[in-house]
Amino acid sequence: MSLFTSTAAWVTDEHRMFADMAGRFMDDELSPNIETWVENGVVDRDFWRKAGETGLMAGAVPEEYGGVGGGMGFDAITAYEQGARGDAGWGYGIQSIVTHYLTAYGSEDQKKKWLPKLASGELVGALAMTEPSTGSDVQAVRTTAEKDGNSYRLNGSKIFITNGQTADLIIVAAKTDKTAGARGVSLIVVETDGCEGFRRGRNLKKLGMKGNDTAELFFEDVKVPMTNLLGPEEGQGFYQLMKQLPWERLNIAIMALGAIDFAIGETVKYVQERKAFGQRVMDFQNTRFKLAECKTKAEVLRSFINDCIGKLEAGELDAATASMAKYWGSEVQNEIMHECLQLFGGYGFMMEYPIARLYADARVQMIYGGTNEVMKELIARSLDV
Hints:
Blueprint: H1 13-30, H2 34-40, H3 45-54, H4 73-83, H5 92-105, H6 108-120, E1 125-128, E2 144-148, E3 151-162, E4 169-175, E5 185-191, E6 198-203, E7 214-225, H7 237-273, E8 275-276, E9 279-280, H8 285-313, H9 319-343, H10 354-363, H11 372-383
Parallel strand pairs: 1-4
Antiparallel strand pairs: 2-3, 3-7, 4-5, 6-7, 8-9
Helix pairs in contact: 1-3, 1-4, 4-7, 5-6, 5-7, 7-8, 7-9, 7-10, 8-9, 9-10, 9-11
């Protein structure tokens, strides 16, 4: 299993060595703990720190802020290697997104203060955009940030927040000007330690991704220093979100590819061992054809994703192409999980087999990061010029 295609121009020897290191770490430290995280509904903080010590979260962080100083391809590798172990619990994808918001828009003081700790796993990040009445329509957020001396007072609530129970550093989308629509949205960084008025709701019960702590967050007159505004001025939040969403959406597609590779591998092993009517399930033409279809779809997706990563590294990944990757990757992921589970027969419905968990985990991929219907609209707009 590999993220790379043989012709991927963005891949270097450093990427290959990083992938080998990441894979060994995932085998040793992630795979044995997945079921425990699923049962507990949260990934241990100890794992975050171990990942930080290994350098898994530092690949694309500039050297002056405690990172390796590489490009986004390193983050892509970490995301893929996680997915390729069948895990959707560790909230690394959001950690990467938070890191790149700070890298792109943070002040020098903010970068020095927060980036090294995000890279080391000392801090866990979260991105708080979605609200109970607002999903993909970010400009309609109701959470407000009103000036109060040299601070903001945050009021509002967020829902479906990945890493919500453990996050120490939360980038919150809030209205600094309630009359300005999209131009009134700003991003404000909340440090949760000792933060008065900040409250976490329960760990939400979900269909899948049970190993991740997904929560509601509440802000009741939370005082945040004005120096925690992300960017040089208010009203830039919507623009900042739109500029960073291509990576979030490509990351979803990369995780999809990893999960697909894992599912196909597990299914092939199962049908080679399982017998029915005196022969291996693998020997039935239907099984072979279904797996052939799945493998072909996986390789087509891999080629597209590698092309997208190359564009991302060159600063050329546009919103429409990233939307295609997210839409197509998550659709193919769900199709393949459906076919693979079917080949497990009754055992596919049993939670002790990873395919059942993978099937449940896949469903939300078509929803978060912007629903696939929104992705299609964005793609269509790029055609209607």
